[in-house]
Every structure is written in C-alpha cells, then in structure tokens.
Design brief:
Residues 1-177 form the FAD-binding PCMH-type domain. Keywords: FAD, Flavoprotein, Oxidoreductase. GO terms for molecular function: FAD binding; oxidoreductase activity. It comes from Georgenia subflava. This is Molybdopterin dehydrogenase. The protein has 300 residues and is α+β, with helices and mostly antiparallel strands. The chain folds into three domains: 7-55, Uridine Diphospho-n-acetylenolpyruvylglucosamine Reductase, domain 2 (2-Layer Sandwich), CATH 3.30.43; 62-173, Uridine Diphospho-n-acetylenolpyruvylglucosamine Reductase, domain 3; 179-295, Enolase-like, domain 1. The chain has eleven helices and 14 strands. The protein has helices at residues 14-25, 39-44, 80-86, 92-97, 104-109, 112-118, 124-132, 149-152, 229-239, 243-261, 272-295, and strands spanning 7-9, 30-33, 52-55, 65-68, 71-75, 135-140, 143-148, 153-155, 158-159, 166-173, 179-186, 196-205, 208-217, 224-227. Strands 4-5-10-6-7 form a five-stranded antiparallel β-sheet, with helices on both faces. β4 and β5 (71-75) form a beta hairpin. α9 (229-239) runs antiparallel to α10 (243-261). It is globular, with a radius of gyration of 20 Å. The N and C termini lie far apart (50 Å).
C-alpha cells in the first residue's frame, strides 16, 4: 500500500516546529518525522493518516549529542548509529542495546528519540529508558517540560506526549560507581521484533545490593520495570558471587516477576507461557551478570 496524501514541511527552528504542529492540529493532525523507520511503515499501511508531516532533521538544536550534568543528552534528530559509533560506552546499557535494534541500515536512519516517541512494545530503547530512569525533554506551545520515562509510556505505541508537542532530547544518566548492567533479547532472527527481552541495572557497594532494576519488553503493552533488590540480595547471601549459582537462586523470584509483567496474548510466534519462560531465563542470567559487573566497576 501507499501512504494517504499529506503535506510536508521542514522547518529549521524549534519554534517553527511547534507552530507547524499547532497548525496541523487544527487541520487534521500532524506527525513529527526524523528517521522515519517506525513512522513510514505505519503510513504505508495506512494505520496512520496525518494531514502534515513535520520534518525536524534541519533543526540544529536537535542534532546535538553530548554529556551534560552527568547525563548523555541525545537530541531528537540524532541517529542511533551515531550514538552507537561515537559514544560507545558512555551509557553502557544503551551501548549494549543498540546493536540489537533492527540492522545497521535501520540504525543509520532511525533516531533514538524517534524510537522512544513511537513507543513500540517490542522496542529496545523504551525499556532502556525505563531501566535507567531517563528523562525526556519536550517542547510545545505552552513551553518546555520534562517527562520521566516512567510517566512517558502509557500504552502500545501511546505516550503522554501532547498532539502539538515534540520530544527535543532524552537524557540518560552516566554510570555511577558500583553499577553493572545486562541486556538480552530473543527474536526469531536478528533484527526481528523481540519475543521477549530484559534490560538490567544493578548497583552494589561492598557486595551489598543497593538497587536492582529489571525492565522488560516484548511481553506487554509498554516496558515494565520491577525492583528486585531484596530478591537479588537474598540470592547473593545464599549463593555468593558465582553467576551460575546466583541465576539458580534467582529463578523463583524472576519467575514471579514474569507472571506479573507478561500480559500480552499469544500469537503465531510465542504463547504467554513461552514468553514467561524467556523472561525467567534472560532475567536470571542478566541479573547475575550485572551484579558481577557491579563488583568491579568504578565511576569514570
């Protein structure tokens, strides 16, 4: 299929982007486009029919990426491949997740903020943002505001972003001393949508677990985040630092989490029960690995 007819504008200033979205909202609705790797297929299948596409790729303010106040700030027009290539390791969990997104050609066009704004339940970056406690910067006719990743995702391909607002950047915290990370997903083939996946962040001090966050994706209508600090500490107390023994001790706790977070119905690729088993297997392994990594990590 082909997209329904639409108008196309490409402003060069953020204020003009907002003005175009306000104008489009009065005339059938508008959509922001940057990389287009998520939006264009939606348009082609006519699942969305915006009257206007507002291209933000010529707004210099949105092309910036760098470290600001202890965070990696990624502008809305920054390609995933640029972050993967030029800022490798700045945010370890982000660096672990980026190679799993589609294929290199997709990442060369797709943007980090575009994936977040699209809010696909099977996407990797929303789960990374939830796990890290990222903050999204937003601009609209009422000015600028910040939205936490916890509040941003409200459902499948649905966010709390207003129809005349645009994400300008996302801020992800740099790693702190004693933090370790884990990421894993299962798909039928590399580049396919994930059947299930986990993003993990653990912080420890002197072997004691201070935080253990697990965010899941591909198993519900949005990324889900759970705190397993007490469960991980109990496993460490029983099994010590051996990753295999830790994974075994964590099995029941992660299985209980999987029962809670897996809410998607079955499909031709995987049943809910299979997705729960995947979450348990991936979650126990990555929690153990993240804990081991946290023991030897020092702040930059």
């Amino acid at each position: 299929m082909k997209a329904a007819p639409f108008s196309y504008v490409r402003p060069t200033r953020l204020g003009d982007v907002v003005a175009e979205l306000v104008r489009a909202d009065e005339d059938g609705g508008g959509k922001v486009i940057a990389g287009g790797q998520s939006l264009v297929p939606v348009l082609a299948m006519r699942l969305g029919r915006p009257a206007t596409l507002v291209d933000i790729t010529q707004v210099d303010e949105l092309k910036q990426v760098g470290v600001v106040d202890g965070h990696l700030r990624v502008g809305a027009a920054v390609r995933q491949r640029r972050v993967e290539r030029d800022h490798r390791g700045a945010v370890p969990l982000l660096s672990q997740a980026l190679p799993w997104i589609g294929h290199r050609e997709i990442r060369s066009r797709g943007t980090v903020c575009g994936s977040l704004a699209h809010a696909d339940p099977s996407a990797e970056l929303p789960a990374v943002a939830r796990c890290l406690g990222a903050t999204l910067d937003v601009a609209g006719p009422q000015g600028r505001r910040q939205i936490s990743a916890e509040e941003f995702f409200s459902g499948a391909m649905t966010t709390t972003l207003g129809p005349t607002e645009v994400v300008t950047s996302v801020r992800m915290p740099l790693p702190r001393e004693g933090e370790g990370f884990g990421f894993a997903e299962i798909a039928r083939r590399h580049g396919d949508f994930a059947l299930a996946g986990v993003a993990v962040r653990v912080r420890s001090r002197g072997g004691a677990v201070e935080e253990a966050a697990v965010a899941t994706f591909g198993v519900s209508d949005r990324p889900r985040r759970r705190d397993l600090r007490e469960e991980l500490q109990g496993a460490v107390d029983r099994a010590g630092h051996d990753p295999d023994a830790l994974a075994r001790e964590l099995g029941d706790a992660v299985a209980a989490m999987a029962e809670d977070v897996v809410t998607t119905g079955g499909d031709s690729h995987a049943s809910p029960a299979y997705r729960r088993r995947l979450v348990r297997a991936l979650g126990t392994r990555e929690l153990a690995r993240a804990y081991r990594s946290s023991l030897g990590r020092t702040a930059r």
